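Single-chain item
Fold in token form
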Amino acid sequence: MASELAGVEQPIRFGEGYEVDLRPRRLRRGSHVLKLERIPFEILLLLLEHRDEIVTRDQIVSRVWGQGVFLDTDNSIRGAIRKLRQVLKDDAETPRFIQTVTGQGYRFVALVITPKEPSAASEPEAAGVPTSDRDFMSELDSWLQARRLRLVEPDQDRTAEKTTDVGTGQANRKSYRWLFVGAAALLLVACLLSFLVVWGWRRASNPPTHSQGKIVLAVLPFENLSRDPDQEFFSDGLTEEMIAQTGKLNRDRLTVVARSSVAKYKGTNLAAKEIGKELNADYLLQGTVRRSSDRVRITVQLVEAQNQTDLWTESYDRELKDLLAVQDSVVQSIASQIHIALTEEQKTRLANPRQIMPEAYEAYLKGRYHWNKRTADGMQKAEHYFQQAIDSDPTYAAAYSGLADCNSGLAWHGFKSPADALPKAYAAARKAVEIDPQSAEAHASLGLVFSHGWNWAGAEAEFRRALELDPQYANAHHWYGDYLSIKSRHDEALAEASRALELDPLNLMISTWVALRYYQARDYSRAIEQGRNSVELDSNFAAAHLLLGEGYVQAGLRSEGISELKRAASLSRGSPLYTAQVAVALAAAERRREALRIAHELETISRKRYVSPYGLAQIYAALKSDEDTFKWLQAAYRDHAVWMEYLAVDPIFDRYRSDHRFQELLRRIDLL
């Protein structure tokens, strides 16, 4: 049967209405497409090819993984057979489809119906003709055949009636026959001309997909086959790296869906068509990864979402140090399959991938894994791993960029003092740009550090350079929008924030900062609406509750604001800046004593660890305690507190805008 399947295009039917489509590589039951991963599908094909025969584990290993594999294949085979049985609703004890033959392998026991192979005579005609056009030609051929029979049969009937005639009668019959043959030939030529006109019209009215618009590719979360939860960082990190690399292809022709937008499809059972519809994606890249010591096996599959066609599948068994070469090979294959032209620079880079130290790459992936959590604990762990990656490979530009972002984030959220975090962030971002001047991530990281350091011209230049290098880098739009708000350029800020959200609609930080853009522009109703959207994305994300609570307070919804801000402070695990916002809300609700108690507690804590003076200034401003407000604002200026960058747009200080002391502070930080 193996030889039979090789040329089969029609579905293979078995059991109770199950069908295997070989060209799209999918399993159906009726009109319903059943979700089946690559390995179980390959095993199903192997069993179908050898129906009623025992298929050994060695045969499965050879078919699925190839020879010389170092992996724990027994568990993988058992897992794949289990998935097959689940999809087919089969029972190992009383099998209807797959029988386990103890100590030997498996046997497919159900009735299998395979279609007949197409005749050799028809193959040359079909070769190179698209399916839709082939169908049309088939219809035309049938019609022509019917017309030919209708023309010839009357003549044949008359001939049968006059079999006894000879001489001139026979000559007349020959004349008639040639007349009919000539007429049939003329009609055939006319029909062929009509066919060519209609075929040309059909092709013109149905141009190749994406000839005008952008192609959208979604890289789905890679499945961790290592069966070790501690290796999740590796599969998640590899997914993010593939998104980053494919995103650097022809940006005029290709859009790659952002990481946070595909994260929810981890372990999903949705069909490719449904995922494509939800993400508005034309193609899906899905894969599996198995890590074993310093070796890794990666299998990737490119699927056309609309018709669920498997366009390309490849497996790579490499040492960890060659992982970048694997990524580059995958990127080249994707570009070829979806017809994305590569520049000469890209071809050169992809043909000459740099090797990486396995320990450096592993540490980097762990850093990204923890950074994406955007929690205090996550950022602190990420900082440790990025530094570990740099120690292993001092030329690792992406690790320097990650280290810079961690320190910027820790300073923004108030978990590190600016004196401690910002010099480290600046040095790391500078180094990243020095190593890789063409990295949009490096320039955006440097722009963020400049913004926190009140170097406004430097910040704008770096953000613009990042967007020039990669217009689809969502974080660059996100941070540039923050800078524009700081400079009171609110319309531009909202445009950048909205673009970031469009590129990465499920990114919690980006979604939350859209609310911040509205809040600083004094559009509190939209700030609340966007804050609610962010909370709906993840009810445990502290910053989302922070912005929602602040919007409530400024809109006069004090009780709701207090509730949200308390939730934010609790989720932040002790951020003094978040705690300060609770006191601001209490002061706005005229609960002065409670607000003062929090202020005094923060002052006490500041003697032991860093507490941003800006938060204390906000509390006293809400309490309308003018002297204390300016005392702490002066301290925030001396401390270079990160939130001082918002001084010109923070609604909490609106009552002080005309005060000469306030205006002097704005001049000092070049915001007036």
Q: What stands out?
A: Residues 129-205 form one domain. Residues 168-205 form the longest helix (38 residues). DSSP finds 29 helices and 14 strands in the chain.
